[in-house]
Write a structure and sequence with these properties.
By secondary structure, the chain is of the alpha/beta class. The chain starts with a strand and ends with a helix. Helix 5 packs parallel to helix 6 (157-166). It contains 13 helices and twelve strands. It has two domains: 3-11 and 256-381, Alpha-Beta Complex (Aspartate Aminotransferase, domain 1); 15-253, Type I PLP-dependent aspartate aminotransferase-like (Major domain) (Aspartate Aminotransferase, domain 2, 3-Layer(aba) Sandwich). 41% of the residues lie in helices and 12% in strands. The structure holds pyridoxal-5'-phosphate. Residues 68-70, 73, 96, 98, 145, 149, 174, 176-177, 197, 199, 208 line the site of pyridoxal-5'-phosphate (PLP).
Length: 382
């Protein structure tokens, strides 16, 4: 069986989630209906709301369900912009396209907040930028992810939130990759809004959520019925939401186990580094199951395809929706230059074993050795 190390693209569905999804689909019912079936469906949605909110230390009333992480990010960014008090948006240099492209689509100027070589946002830069903030810039608004999807690097969100609060600004946090993999507490982080996605933690695709604090007024993107307290119209995806809730419960229960991944990942990383791979984000705090390496003269696409042929599924930086592999923008932002074209991401999660990481390292080393031998032969013939 193939080794699946692409949890950051999408995690395999957890059996507990699958079970409740099936039950919800079989039962049917619209949560807005007042009859018994409707009430059961409503209970599923509200139970899931409690579970998902608990995963990030929020109260259930502070959570609105969405159609995924992308929509949750958009709902947050567009709501803050709708306040009319924002004139520009600062986004971390390694943010996901869901954040960057949404920020750009608002039509406001988007400023990039740089990261250091480890991929960590530079707090001194933010301090200086906020010091120079003028009235013409409006209220400061920053988007900073909690954990990066390619490198797993964890950002100094709490510090950024404190700085923004002092400056009278807002902070949006994309926690899509962090939730369920590390402990997340929205109050401790100080985020005004926090985006979540079910499929990164073992729930179904196409379901997400936005946690919002008292300082933010949510402006609905969709208009129609009064679902989600008028914040997200449309009949709820009851089965998907129930699956999200079940996955969140199990993820919270098993959080301590998730940390085991780091030991297995680091053992694999050490073997790859000996063969010349550079570990991106090394030295920074990272998600336990994410490994991003960059290798000179070994294009990402070639690595991914070679590993796939040998039964190991990983990705080239971010999983690209177009199916094309571009050099990693995240590594480019970290100053990797041409090395960014040789980026590879392996990401484990709830069902990943030590053997999976060992097998990944075995196969990568074999593929890399083959490539090196080919290179030597070509040079001999030249
Ligand atoms: N934010 C981050 C950091 C992600 O990794 C992803 C998914 O790749 C998203 C947002 C988008 O989430 P979804 O696929 O649920 O729309």
């Amino acid at each position: 069986m193939a080794v699946y190390l692409d949890h950051n693209a999408t995690a395999p569905i957890r059996p507990e989630a699958l079970e409740v999804i099936r039950a919800a689909l079989e039962a049917g019912g619209n949560p807005s209906s007042v009859h018994a079936s409707g009430r059961v469906a409503r209970a599923r949605v509200e139970d899931a709301r409690s579970s998902v909110a608990a995963l990030v230390g929020a109260s259930p009333e502070a959570l609105v369900f969405t159609g995924g992480g992308t929509e949750a990010n958009a709902l947050a960014i567009e709501s803050v912009v709708a306040s009319g008090e924002v004139r520009r948006i600062l986004v971390g240099a390694t943010e996901h396209e869901a954040v960057v492209n949404t920020a750009r689509a608002t039509g406001l100027p988007v400023e990039i907040w740089p990261v250091d070589r480890r991929g960590v946002a530079d707090l001194d830069w933010l301090a200086a930028r906020l010091k120079g903030w003028g009235a013409e810039d409006g209220r400061p608004f920053v988007a900073l992810m909690l954990a990066n999807n390619e490198t797993g690097v964890i950002q100094p969100v709490a510090q950024a939130a404190a700085m923004l609060r002092e400056a009278g600004g807002w902070l949006h946090v994309d926690a899509v990759q962090a939730a369920g993999k590390i402990a997340v507490d929205v109050t401790a982080l100080g985020a005004d809004t926090l985006a979540l996605s079910a499929h990164k933690l073992g729930g179904p695709q196409g379901v997400g959520g936005l946690i919002y604090g008292e300082r933010v007024r949510i402006t609905p993107r969709l208009h129609g019925g009064g679902q989600e307290r008028g914040l997200r119209a449309g009949t709820e995806n009851v089965a998907g939401i129930a699956g999200f809730g079940a996955a969140a419960d199990v993820a919270r229960r098993d959080l301590a186990q998730a940390a085991d991944q780091a030991v297995w990942r680091d053992a694999a990383a050490a073997r790859l580094a000996e063969a010349g791979a550079v570990v991106a984000g090394e030295g920074a705090e990272r998600l336990p199951g994410t490994l991003c390496i960059a290798t000179a003269d070994f294009p990402s696409a070639l690595q991914v395809m070679s590993l796939d042929l040998d039964g190991v599924q990983v990705s080239a930086g971010a999983a690209c929706s177009s199916g094309k592999v571009k050099p990693s923008g995240v590594l480019a932002a970290m100053g990797y230059g041409e090395l960014a074209a040789g980026a590879l991401r392996a990401s484990g999660g709830w069902n990943t074993t030590q053997q999976d990481w060992d097998r990944f390292a075995d196969v990568w080393l074999a593929v890399h050795a083959r490539r090196t031998r080919q290179g030597e032969r070509v040079r001999e013939l030249a």
